Amino acid sequence: MKYFPKSVQNNMREKDIAATCVPVQFDDGEWESAFFLHVAGPESRQDRRILKKNRVTPTLLTTELMMHAGAAVLMLRVEVGTVNDDPLVFEILLIPGQVSMHYECLKLLARQQRIRYFFADSDYRLMQEQQHEISDAQHEKFEALAREAFAHDSVLRMSGKYDPRTAISDIVAHYQVRSEPARNPDSISH
User: Fold this and answer.
1) Any idea where the domains of the chain sit in the sequence?
2) Which residues have C-beta within 8 Å of that of residue 159, sequence separation ≥ 6?
3) Do 162 and 70 meet the contact criterion of CB atoms below 8 Å apart?
């Protein structure tokens, strides 16, 4: 693969996002969730140089399940150690109870053997690809996140209070005003 798949590029452009986690199938293999990380803009020039030069860059994936009064929202945070003491950070918000693809991503992460990260430049040209094994404990963590989100949303649906639009709006507004994201102990370091 020389570029991100067209469907991924189009989705990222339409939604004006720099990162996504989507189900993909490579070479007629099994479906898996993969991370596509778009490293664009002049502020990321040094990050792009490092990603192009290095075969593997330290990567940390953390998760945070937010139980909002309207819906469960899962944040996948990818930190890439391109520059010492200033990691490249991507945050992806999933609404597993509302968007079937988000739920599918989470279920795939709970059973697939590896996590793939794809990094592209401003033209969506692939600069680096990484693959990391997922341990049994990590599989269990993703499965538990899916169960917790489903249970939370089920209660909200039964009570007529399920409102994923408000949940995502409130969470996005919260993260826009936060000066420093909180660290989360639920992390997967590579």
Assistant:
1) 6-140+148-178
2) none
3) yes
